[in-house]
Fold Glycine cleavage system P protein.
Amino acid sequence: MTTVTKKVIPLRWISNIKLLQHRSFHVDAIAYKTANITSKQFESIYNSDAKDLSRELDGFLKRHIGPSPKDVNKMLKTLNYDDLSNFISSVIPEKILEKRSLNLKAPDQGYTEQEMLKELKNLANLNNFEVKNFIGKGYYGTILPPVIQRNLLENPQWYTSYTPYQPEISQGRLESLLNFQTIITELTGLPIANASLLDEGTAASEAMLLSFNLSKGKKKTYLIDSNIHKQTKAVLRTRSIPTNIEIKEIDPYNLDSIKEELSTNNVSGILIQYPATDGSIASMENLQNLSKLIHEKKGIVSVASDLMALTLLKPPSEFNADVVLGSSQRFGVPMGFGGPHAAFFSVTNKLSRKIPGRIVGVSKDRLGNQAFRLALQTREQHIKRDKATSNICTAQALLANIAAMYVVYHGPEGLKNISQRIFAITSILAKFINSDGSSFKTLNENWFDTLTIKLPDGITSDNLLQNALKKYNINLYKVNDNAVSVAIDETTTQKDLENLIKLFSNDSQINVTQLVAESKFEEFPVDLRRSDNFLAQPVFNTYHNETAMLRYMTRLQMRDLSLANSMIPLGSCTMKLNATTEMIPITWPQFANIHPFQPKSQVQGYYELTKSLEHDLCEITGFDAISLQPNSGAQGEFSGLRVITTYLKDQGQTHRNICLIPISAHGTNPASAAMCGLKVVPIACLKNGSLDLVDLKAKAEQYKDNLAAIMITYPSTYGLYEPGVTDAINIVHENGGQVYLDGANMNAQLGLTSPAFLGADVCHLNLHKTFAIPHGGGGPGVGAIGVKSHLQPYLPGHDITKIEGAGEKSIDAVCSSAFGNSLVLPISFAFIKMLGNQGVPFVSSMAILNANYLVERLKEHYKILFISEEDRVSKHCAHEFIIDLREFKDKHVEAIDIAKRLQDYGFHAPTLAFPVPGTLMVEPTESEDLNELNRFVDAMISIRGEIDDFVNGQPKGMVLKNAPHSLEDLLISKDWDTRGYTREQAAYPLPFLKQNKFWPVVARVDDMYGDMNLMCTCPSVEDVASSQK
Ligand SMILES: Cc1ncc(COP(=O)(O)O)c(C=O)c1O
């Protein structure tokens, strides 16, 4: 069905000066009640006309889309088409092509970049960022050192790189992530840490599931400290439901009641908060006893902690914790209304193979040099699918890198100075509050940075909060009607302390300045204080001035290939332009310095932004409602499936527990289904790549009484617009199931078709793919979900922040903050609004054109899976395609050889071995221009010659096996006389490389060695010294 909406042509397009020229456009627009994707329309939006005063000259479409109208014509000609619209009609099956005209909250042709920045500034100014937040509860004011802000967070070389799957061209961020892991292991005292998780709440649930899985799913009770953050409890509840884990809140001081719980032999572990959410710190003796009790019953002790506190506080290893987790936000990462921030997770050696998420490990390259890489990947969902222990694909790499650099910059002494000051300020305030004349009293007896304060009779929390805001522009946290809490952080000044004292003195006329000046600078108590010498590694003790720091970051950035170097044609990853204008607002304090629990009246900018973005995403997907909460694609899958299972429960259909998943699905699909308690039933695919509808029908009917859902990706993970998708959806609906669409390939749908039009009930959108949020070297992501109206009541709610539309049927929060990774939402907001109704469909049209152009140029040289003459399911691919290299396998050339050789040509490899082993999946996106596409084609053709050399036994074919070639290899290796190819052939196989060469800093990395000799922290001082001998 095509929705026909009458288009109103904005007056600004019908200027008198250009009336004649505009007439044809005008007529076209009226004739096209559906989206107009003709070549002429593209040209008319692309080309600005100096005489047309009604239109700003520099439109965004022209900057975002790579090919110019001229290029488009050339490419169409190569493909034998005369018009873009005809081409698209022949690519997308008729019943799939919707071309519904959009009604975005934006000008038809989009905002220009300057207009967008003004609009965003207006929104930003609706957020109160000048208020001083003492809210705490997992989110704290912090100072992002400007050198890190500009040279890392605002630097495309850091934020546009992908997850470091190709280690030879990712050594910079791998080193930084190794620094992050080292910081975590040093501060928590546990030997193994991962390279970040999504947030504290989800990290806590990973700890719960790890404990449960270790008990082989037998011990169904999980104990949690009643004194953990409220938002963490909510996320734990969400994750406990599918596995029927019973969460019991306990008082960690009450060892008798814990003994009683343990006597059931049904407890898999415990999670405590240290320091607790009320600010208190349990005694070491108590914690050791507690730990002993849990361990005696083979349970796992997990600790949610705070890195800043741990720079003073004894590490959890001293009371034998098995897992330590938390957020690294306060190490320089802006609060951003709740995210993105990197959670951390460390474990004991015995849990090293159970740890969730990505781990960076140390290995060696072909020349024996130290090299970093992602370790132990066989634990992950890519391999283990529904048996995976966790489901982390996109994590929070960029934020982990910021936190790591913050520590590199401050060093252990700098950190201790910051934390000691935080403690001292807290102590001065506590002393005042507990002084004889005060009518207030702290409820916690000890603290690091947080005081929970009981109010005197006659003062309610609401009164006090109002007073604090009105008189001192201060936000506190309301614990209950009679208690508030105050959290001190790195940004707290003497003036702030004075204001707090005035507030808690009932505004009496005391001389606070004098009082503060005379206060003792309290040292952290000896019985709680750690005594070890942490972070002694050279990297944390070298770069403390800005010049050194700048050079360290620059050195690392130069080791990484990012979109700033060349195209990253990773299939299923949509590495498109992340425009500077989209990125600029995220470091504005109006968006960055906002606490997620600030009252709604103070964050109207964020509310308006999210509402407008939700509207636009509904418009694009055809859905009735959107939740922006899930903070990765995999998290979106979990949320969408939770919404489905909760809906089914409400319908009295709890028994429906089967999830059909095609064998071509991404590993996160089966892993998410399993996390939701669903049983995965695989659906076959035909030889030609399409879904086997016969198998699907048979399975849907076989399981019709218990069918919960199907998860499908559209266009399929094979890069095909399967015409049978609507039949597949109907089959599932007819058999009582719901349809979950994995939106990873949404970049082939924008304005052309939509998940709701296809018939899906729910779909996640990777805003970090389709909607221009940069991949950050492995995160952040936003896995927003869209749903049809029957599922809307079940979208995630939040215990602290009000989400419009959330109600009693809402599932509990899936992550810690209400709007997930809110700080990066302005990026997608700007992307959509700068393209406008007319520009959006060209995103997908050009992505499809670019992919098909590559197919056309490469098909003589390589087999293209599913699109070859004899095997074709479709004449064309969608926005990505698969190069089949399996024919070379028995000649001993592997897909990985081509992937590595591409590095010598300055390209990141396409997606390797997914969805078909032995292949490369290429996705150029709409942002690459014809020159870059041709460069890639030239490189691939040249490599084809090298494959032939190898297959024909020519010595120069060895260039493939030795790839990539580092500079060191070229300069120092002694075997060049026997290689069979020259240095020049190794490094400059095509002329353009002499002008534009990216050097891999290491040679091919040995994967096996790294896994067998797991090392995932920085070398110690001793190691460095001995390696220099
Ligand atoms: C088809 C598909 N589904 C799901 C995901 C998971 O998304 P995320 O990495 O954001 O968790 C990916 C990631 O690449 C994907 O390609």
